[in-house]
């Protein structure tokens, strides 16, 4: 398999005030080029942590991450940033934008920082598809939460990265805008062979993906090819029952 | 990067303005100070009576060469009030090839002349010869320095003030700018972390922060330089009207001074930004994604240990300052204040946490729920408010110590002079050396003492310095002045002997019976036997010499008994003598007070600034609190309670530092262990700090609260 991302025995623990919280407890996974994966699981199961460590935003406590042939733990902060800038786009769960900059400047920021401005035609296409053409000169504070989220997605798509990580990109969107965003991600995969890894709680959103990973307590508990929205909902529900059973 | 930084700056006007104000005030102070130092440094007095000669050989200063530990030599110079040149140098000068004429400017004695004026083309040779004979040659523009003049005195006075305070001013500015910039960058942690997460390398973040502060420093110069020009004019007018500098004393070098100030501020701002950015650029990008960018509430071990070590150094310096006296103690005690403030800056997180714990119950009882919230905030934000605590402590410590030093000095001087003056009146004016002798024979006169006020150069540990001196005629001295002799007796002050004050004896390392090596006012180096050590050095003089060691007329005759009139001399009653003394002191204190006032003011400005900045940075947090159901009134009460908690710590520590420093210096300078503080002094310092702390926090918070909370709870910070 032509894996763009490979993670091996990934663990991440947080130590706060002497208490140890295990966010990831040994995760192995590989993501092939041109695939769309949905990561699901209960709140606090480690989804955001998985995405952040895989994207080199956070360093794992142990285990390794490869992007292509590059192993991330070998890179220093600068090299890591450069790799992220060139090959990875990231849409965060919240607080994505620099308040001082306009929508357009926010979208072009990674290019400006790397000195490689993206193709303007592609940028305007992306902007159009997220429905922000009229909003380019606005400040983030003047946009709704969903609109802000779409700016962040446009920013991630603008540089045409090999891999796009998106942490609940549709969490704040209505069904129509969510559909727009999801088909945008889908076409990035189908048309441009980009790789998308997306965290979501919504079975419908997950049904756009080729594969569904389910996390619980920092471990992968399900890894299946697209099973359809209904089956996903069932899986999550059974997981909820199982957790209740374990706790009870 | 520059464009981006300007955009980011504009979006955060509040904090940018705070940094801008600190920087602009820094530019203004530095440039004004530099203008006077530069003016003094480039000033050339009028050659006056030497206009017609090419080189003047005179003796205006003593050069003392000392070997340092590392084998290097250092040279210190001390001015001579009435230096003279050996008369036999004239023949040697005439013998030099190229010398066409040597004019003699007569001095007070036969074998010593005031100066030689040399004509001819032999500057180098004259310089060499002068040097070999321990005197100096002044050629060209420098000829004016060969005579003591009002303008020349003004020059050395400005240079002295500059070198005494310049270093401390620069240090203070470095301190304030570092604190303000550090706080501004800390408040932008979230923004910068997000930049890191999006795609900025640590280097780019550092560059961005540095560029921002460089822009701010340049903008500050645009305000600071014109302000400095105004300040310079004002200070100059004041100096002239108070008679410190003559009317015609040129104020020059503004471009150079502006350059110095701007470059220095730019440097300090950028370096401070670099240090602050280092911390920020190291945080992991993922940290940016949390709701609030969490930061550890305490500092690291290194910080704690450095803080404790600095505190220890401060303690040691205090003991040294309290144990020692004289100049060494004075210098170490002012450095002491800085040491303590640095220790406070380092230990601030722990101090804040401790203050929160100690004052917690009080705040909770007084302010109820709001007090409880305040305590939680104080504890959680112990590190964030380090800059605020430090700025407050600095202002209180400075205002409470250095400001009162001058009062203590003045008071001691006047008291000593009053207590020691046993004469009925004094005749003031230039009178030939034998005048006192004649007055003494007048019926009804019990005693008369002729005095010539001058100065000598005495050794201190690393060179030499000028010390005030009186040459007195000792006959009946104990009836006219009581110097508070501690050891020895003034009766033996005859021939090659000297009496010195206790402080002077300590700093020069002399004991009773020692041979004291000093330079007399005319520049001769002699060894004099210390025959007495007395207490009232401040009120009279550091050094008392037998009258015949110093040539020239008396300028005062102290008389006990009937009033005697002498043509050309004014009769001044003893009561007015001390009054005059305190007026003179108040005059010379003016510049000190101005400089110290500026420093205290700058420290207070920094404190206010820091607090406004900290208050504005809480926009989001306060909005979230309101959304959670806390009323505006409760938010205001919470903020007040927090300020009271912070103030409690700051005032206690600031007052403690001020008290220790003041006691140490006052003891060193006056020998008194109990410093004098004007009755309203502490009220003004502590009250001022309290008002400042409350106003600079509560007003900005009120403004924040006027905006509906939902607008501030969003992503903007
Ligand atoms: N900075 C941190 N310090 C301490 N613990 C943390 C930190 N970040 C995350 N955690 C903990 O790690 C665990 C996993 O967090 P993570 O954010 O990955 O969950 P998630 O699956 O994304 O949840 P959600 O669906 O709510 O976003 C949680 O228990 C969380 O409390
Ligand atoms: Mg998450």
UniProtKB/TrEMBL annotation, chain A:
Pfam families, per database record: ABC_tran
Ranges where the ABC transporter domain occurs: 5-242
User: Matching PROSITE patterns, A to Z?
Assistant: ABC_TRANSPORTER_1, ABC_TRANSPORTER_2
Q: Which UniProt keywords apply?
A: ATP-binding, Nucleotide-binding, Transport
Please provide, alphabetically and separated by semicolons, the GO molecular function terms listed in this UniProt record: ATP binding; ATP hydrolysis activity; transmembrane transporter activity
InterPro entries, alphabetically?
Answer: AAA+_ATPase (IPR003593), ABC_transporter-like_ATP-bd (IPR003439), ABC_transporter-like_CS (IPR017871), ABC_transpr_LolD-like (IPR015854), MacB-like_ATP-bd (IPR017911), P-loop_NTPase (IPR027417)
Under the heading SUPFAM superfamilies, the entry gives:
P-loop containing nucleoside triphosphate hydrolases
Assigned GO CC terms: membrane protein complex; plasma membrane
| Name under which the protein is recorded | Putative ABC transport system ATP-binding protein
Automatic annotation (TrEMBL), chain B:
- Give the record's membrane topology: Multi-pass membrane protein
- Name where it's found: Cell membrane
Chain ranges passing through the membrane:
20-43, 165-185, 214-236, 256-277, 308-329, 335-355, 386-405, 594-617, 644-669, 681-701
Source domain of life is Bacteria
A Gene Ontology cellular-component term: plasma membrane
Q: ABC3 transporter permease C-terminal domain spans which residues? A: 165-285, 595-708
UniProt keywords (A-Z) are: Cell membrane, Membrane, Transmembrane, Transmembrane helix
Q: What is its main location?
A: membrane
Task: Tell me yes or no: is Cell membrane among this UniProt entry's keywords.
Answer: yes
Listed PANTHER family: INNER MEMBRANE PROTEIN, MEMBRANE COMPONENT OF PREDICTED ABC SUPERFAMILY METABOLITE UPTAKE TRANSPORTER
Recorded protein name is Putative ABC transport system permease protein
Q: Which organism is it from?
A: Paractinoplanes atraurantiacus
